[in-house]
Every structure is written in structure tokens, then in C-alpha cells.
Amino acid sequence: MRITHVETFRVPLPGPRPAFAWRRGLLGSGPDGEAAVLRIGTDEGVSGVALATRAGMAAAVEDIVDRVLRDELVGADPLQREHLWHRIWELDRTEEFPLPALGLADTALWDLAGRLYGEPVWRLIGGFRERIPAYASTVTFRDIAEYLDVATQCLELGYSAIKLHAWGDVDADARLARRLREHVGDEVPLMYDGSAGFDLPDAIRLGRVLADAGFLWYEEPMREFSVNAYQRLAQAVDVPLLVAETSDGAHMNSADFIAAGAATFGVRTGASMRGGITGSLRTAHLAEAFRVRAEVLVGEMPSRHLCMAIPNTTYYESLVTADPVLKKPEIDADGYLHAPVDPGIALPAGLDYPSTLLPYVETE
Predict the structure, then answer these.
(1) Residues 347, 351, 355, 359: what is their CA dihedral angle, to the nearest 10 degrees?
(2) CA-CA distance, 52 to 80, in Å (whole number)?
(3) pLDDT at 352
(4) What is the number of H-type helices and E-type strands within the chain?
(5) For 298, which DSSP code?
(6) Parallel/antiparallel/unpaired status of strands 33-42 and 3-13
(7) Does domain 3-120+353-361 have CATH number 3.40.1180.10?
(8) Cβ-count burial of 212 within 10 angstroms (0-12 exposed, 13-18 middle, 19+ buried)?
(9) Could you give the strand order of the β-sheet that contains 47-52, starting from the edge strand earlier in sequence?
(10) pTM
């Protein structure tokens, strides 16, 4: 079997309704835009697809495929994912692909293999579980009262844990963390994601509050350019750190955070930022060797497969973008995500994707 065609499609992607905000200083949710679909086809009629939904990626993916990837992939054996993964990393040396584009072909090749063998990708990888608890991952809400109301709604919907994306103000975020702990009690796991809003002194101040409030993990309080800064943070706070979400280099970069003692809870993994399914698994296995966690990034369909295949991941991240909180159809009444059942990544069945994408992700 050989790859015969590599296609890209720009497709409409409706913006979220209602719009939402991230921390102060960051842009919130965008308006209606475009997604990029990458489709890889073969001489035996089986195809695989992958989807890039981040803002601005449609044009970037189209350019990368037309200039570089099509010539690299056409004629190759689509089941030699390891070889093709390494080839794309070689090309990245001069291209400096955007992180969300780096693993797109790999994810499409895993989808192709699943469709070929009639199995969901998590089973091809080697399944570890068939369900996983979901946590509610907030966007940035207006004030403490709204956060507490959202937390109550999330617990009533079955979510077993809550992660804050707050304002990026060390004093306000500290007050919110204390109030949320008082509100939900000691038994509910809480996490905090700083979205890189702080320098080291403020990250230490907030980290000590989170430790006192018994937070499960402290995620990305600073930009992830300096492993040394994270090493010093880990030495100064007791709350465990979850790191290496946006840093380049997949498992290679995550290794530096772990070796420095800066990943005291674990590292982030996920197809959109760690080099596809293959890069995500490398990162997860590296973390497991050091007995730390590999938590999967907020879920699109590839994340669901990874959550079912990675033993050292704790939760599925489910984004809560509005108040009142709407129940996510993929999360059951007890707050669990269940394993996908359709072959491949199963994008057509993915509840995260609007119906406008289906003609482009359905394959032969």
C-alpha cells in the first residue's frame, strides 16, 4: 500500500456561542473562522484524516502541504509511521512548523491505520482503560461569585474535579483559589492553570497559596522557555507542577523539565502540541519511566483515544465555556468519558466538530 494523494481543505469553523474569555492580557475565543482538514489517501482506497482548528492554521497547513509534505508523503508506505514521523522532524529543522501542524500528518496516518484494520486508534495503540473521569476546565469568568456558581453546576453534572483558568492577577487568583476550596470542601480535586501569566516571584507567591489550599496540580504559571525558572519554582513550592504544554520539542524538551526536577506532578501531552499521536506516546512513556503523570490536553477526538491508551494520565479535560454550564454529551451522568468505538480517530462521530466538517472528514 502506498500514499497516492495528500489533500487539504479549508472549511468553515463556527466560533463558540457564547464567546468566552481567557486570562487578562490574552485574546478570548475568536469569531467564526476556518479549520484545516488534512486527508491522506492510498492506492488501496483507504484514507486517513486529521483536523487543525486553531486560529490561523488553515492557511499554514495548506502552505506546508503544498510546499513540503505532499512530496514527502506521496509514494510512502502509510503504515511506516515511525519513519514518516522522523522525516517530518527532519523537515522541521529548517521549516520550524507551528506546533499544531507538526503532528497533523502523524494523526492522519493513525486514523488511516484504524480505518484499515477496523479498530479505534486507542485499541491499536494498546488500550489501558475504557472510561476515564473528566474534570471541568473553566475559561475565565467575571468574578468569584460566578466561578463558585459554575463550580456548583459542574459538580451537579457529575464532574469529579475542577481546574481554574483565572485572571492572571496573583492576588485575585489567590483569593479565588481559597474561596473555591472553601466552597467545594476538601474532597474535590482542584487544579490551577496560569496560562503563563506570571514571572517567577509571583508564581512562587501563588504556588504557596495553592499548596495551602490542597490543589492537585499547578500548571504553566510562566512561559515555558526557561527550565531553570521552573526548577527554582519547584524548589520553592509544595504544590506539584504540571509543565511542558507549549514548549517545543515533544518528548525531547519534556525530558529536560523532568530531569531538572521541575515536573513534580508531570508533563502535558496531546496530539496538537506534542507531534501527533506518536509524539504524545513518546512523551507519556518518558514520563512513566520517571514515575510522573502525562496529562492529555483539552479534548478533541485524538485526546479521547490518548486518554484510553496512556496509563499515567489521570483525567480527561473537558472545557466549560459558559454560564449556565451545558452538559457535554460525551460525559456521562457520573462524570466519565467512555472510549470511542468507531474505527480510526472517528472524526465524523466526534461531537466536538460541527456538521459542516463532515463531508471533508468522511473517507472512502
Answers:
(1) 10
(2) 22
(3) 44
(4) 14, 12
(5) S
(6) antiparallel
(7) no
(8) middle
(9) 3-13, 33-42, 47-52
(10) 0.93
- pLDDT surpassing 90 at residue 196: yes
Q: List, for residues 110-135, the tens digit of each pLDDT value.
A: 999 999 999 999 999 999 999 999 99
- Which residues 6+ apart lie within 8 Å of 30 measured at CB? 15, 55
Q: Average pLDDT in the 311-326 region?
A: 96
DSSP letters spanning 164-192: EE--S-HHHHHHHHHHHHHHH-SSS-EEE
d(CA 196, CA 151): 23
Which grid coordinates belong to 87?
A: 522525516
Superfamily (CATH H level) for 123-340:
Enolase-like C-terminal domain (3.20.20.120)
Outline which parts of the chain fall under CATH 3.20.20.120.
123-340
Cell of 112: 488511516
Question: DSSP secondary structure string, 174-242?
Answer: HHHHHHHHHHH-SSS-EEEE-TT---HHHHHHHHHHHHHTT-SEEE--S-TT-HHHHHHHHHH--SPEE
Looking at the chain, the domain(s) classified CATH 3.30.390.10 span: 3-120+353-361
Pair type for strands 266-269 and 316-320: unpaired
What is the tens place of the pLDDT at every residue in 241-269?
A: 999 999 888 888 999 999 999 999 999 99
Given CA atoms 290, 291, 296, 297 in this order, what sign does their dihedral have? Answer: negative
- Confidence bin at 75 (pLDDT 50/70/90): very high
